[in-house]
Amino acid sequence: MNRFQVFLTTLLLFYCTTYFSGGNAGITSHCYNGDCFVMASTSLFSIVCGVILGLYAILFPRQKSISDKPLEVGIWRRFGAFLVDFIVVLTVATPLLTLPLILAEYYETGIFAWSFQRDFSRTTDNVIIIPSALSFFFFLSFYFYKFHMTGQPTLGQYILGFRVTGNDNDVKKGEAASRVVLSFVGLCIWPISVLHALYNGKEFWWDEFSNTKVERIKMGTE
């Protein structure tokens, strides 16, 4: 599959996942001056579509070769790939991670519904919501770690035409783990990271510190 087909397939599965949850899959919870609002929404079809997207992101055949043009991987190309990958993981994980709160609401009310909203909080909300949020970041970290280790591009990297590799070809476990951690730190301080990259040949600082690099690839079906 070429990158355009992969991009369209990703968009279609993302649309289906959100559509079957009423366009608002996930959990919303906030309190202000003692007033609380909690909302959760998912569906069986959203979970199924999310699982399909996850399997697709991992298993679809990646026909690729190293680009014969020594082109740099620009900052915005790399940011665009991360945005696609973030949305992929969010689409896969959110319907599943919302399910525990849905089941907890069913336990409290005796009425099962794939979505609910209420203007008060329960003592069990944070017990479920906080681990769900932490689980999302675990899934996101593992997603990048897995592809760094295999030398394959992530879904976003494939669409944008590059991959992560080690300076000595293969990425070692320690290098993959440090790249994931350091790149997340770099995103938290993105203005500094972008400025550093602009003055450092479009390489981010976590490339050097994790002993990894990015290289352009071309797809065999393009």
Q: Which sequence of strands runs across the widest sheet? A: 1-2-4
Helix content: 55-70%
Straight-line N-to-C gap: 8 Å
Overall mean pLDDT stands at: 88
Total beta strands = 6
Shape: globular
Number of helices: 8
Provide tags for this entry.
222 residues; alpha+beta; three-stranded antiparallel sheet; 8 helices; 59% helix
What report would you give on this structure?
The protein is α+β, with helices and mostly antiparallel strands and 222 residues long. The protein has one domain (3-219). It is built from 8 helices and 6 strands. It has helices at residues 3-19, 44-59, 75-109, 125-150, 155-160, 173-188, 190-198, 205-209; strands at residues 26-32, 35-41, 64-66, 115-118, 162-166, 212-219. The strands form 2 sheets. The protein has a 3-stranded antiparallel β-sheet with strand order 1-2-4, covered by helices on one side. A 3-stranded antiparallel β-sheet has the order 3-6-5. The longest helix has 35 residues, at 75-109.
Short synopsis of the structure:
A hairpin with a 2-residue loop joins strand 1 (26-32) and strand 2. The protein has helices at 3-19, 44-59, 75-109, 125-150, 155-160, 173-188, 190-198, 205-209; strands spanning 26-32, 35-41, 64-66, 115-118, 162-166, 212-219. The N and C termini lie close together (8 Å).
